[in-house]
Design a protein that fits this description.
Helix content is 47%, strand content 23%. It is of the alpha+beta class. It folds into two domains: 68 residues, no CATH class; 60 residues, Alpha-Beta Plaits, CATH 3.30.70.
Amino acid sequence: MLLSSHLLPEVQELCDRVAIVDQGRVVYEGALADLRRQGGGGYRLRTTDDARALALARETAGVEHPRALEQGVAFQADEQAVAGLSLALGRAGVAILSLTPELATLEDLFFRLTDTGHDGDGRLQAHAAALAQAEQLVEAR
């Protein structure tokens, strides 16, 4: 079944594979789960001392874009950096109340792939560029 829609939250709930088209060109086609993993999203962290957690996040290698939330801290990182931050928090006596991974929504990813003015995720742009090159090779044959 093919579903074409601009209601991306509903597409995210209904579909397991997606194709994203920008100006008549397919910029992504594949599993929605793979796209969401590539797009990252980051983590939300709540601790017994969020101010200290934010300071430690800023000092921890591999933790990117740490920022204070109303309750907690948000950041982006790979699993190794998250492990390093967790250890640093423990050594500092800061207890983790919750550490929740957050995947990017289909809507976030759509705009990263199609909005040329947006500073999108490099992995998604690289994937789109590789897909475009593959399409050119197919067209050349």
